[in-house]
Amino acid sequence: xxxxxxxxxxxxxxxxxxxxxxxxxxxxxxxxxxxxxxxxxxxxxxxxxxxxxxxxxxxxxxxxxxxxxxxxxxxxxxxxxxxxxxxxxxxxxxxxxxxxxxxxxxxxxxxxxxxxxxxxxxxxxxxxxxxxxxxxxxxxxxxxxxxxxxxxxxxxxxxxxxxxxxxxxxxxxxxxxxxxxxxxxxxxxxxxxxxxxxxxxxxxxxxxxxxxxxxxxxxxxxxxxxxxxxxxxxxxxxxxxxxxxxxxxxxxxxxxxxxxxxxxxxxxxxxxxxxxxxxxxxxxxxxxxxxxxxxxxxxxxxxxxxxxxxxxxxxxxxxxxxxxxxxxxxxxxxxxxxxxxxxxxxxxxxxxxxxxxxxxxxxxxxxxxxxxxxxxxxxxxxxxxxxxxxxxxxxxxxxxx
Length: 401
Ligand code: NIG
Ligand code: FE
Description:
401 residues, alpha/beta, 18 strands, globular, binds N-(iminomethyl)-L-glutamic acid
């Protein structure tokens, strides 16, 4: 348990009051019971354990607000197929895509799926991510969805990273219901949601709202049922085509509307007027080798609150590093350095409903911190992948992890 961090060259944090970046120079951080209690010059109070930052810069730990880390197998074959000219849609039609991960996930018993998923999640820490949102969604049966969420709960208890669980039973239509989608939706609404809520296995409920998956009406039915059980909405919308998913996300009070590669101007307007965070996942566009990145610049200029995340999953993005995502968001979505930083810290915290405890270096916030062997914030996206060797320490709730 660290109680004071000293010799910090600069602390970077968002200032929600002025909506700008704050930089504190030559200040120490005092921590008590896992929380920051003071940020000031030369704190010295008979401190038990000091950490010499040796001139490091300090940022909040990254918050990755959109991941799918619970799955069996992998889909490297699809990566090759795409390079040979197949599209995501064609691969799905030929038996690949989400369904192929469903079959591999169902083959795993609890321990095997736990082991795979544990290793998937453990890696995030070394890239400086201290909180992730993690979705189920590769089980798509009552038992396999519950198994996935129980695995998230167990990993959360074993690893120092905090994991916020999301139920994504509406990720795709499982093969046994392909001709009877309505029966699967009924199963989600009448069995999965009540049981998951009863066992307190999820905080959020997500739906892949996209033609060929779940339409607007079906999404609304599922979200309304989830809300009855106190599961909060967040949605995958307007990824491949615009289907007014962003507008629906706003109407349903979603915490976050994610992907938005194809969002319309009216969708952007709706998001701008709302509290729903627009979450960009540029790693997915990159990994799918597409050109149409979400237009983050336009969204921010119109007044949206933008967050960025990895979307780590076996099919469309295997990136775990938020430094890489900052790099892509700046190069491909038009975000400035400050906006990419905000999107991976404070706005990401908002999108998971935790903006009062994580995402800032501030008194009363958890001491979730990254100490970087860098001299300036711009070096984080600049070094992107090789950032790994620039991370001196990752601190979670005051502990070195
Ligand atoms: O966010 N878009 C839906 N879900 C995932 C992809 C899942 C998969 O292909 O396995 C995503 O990109
Ligand atoms: Fe996703």
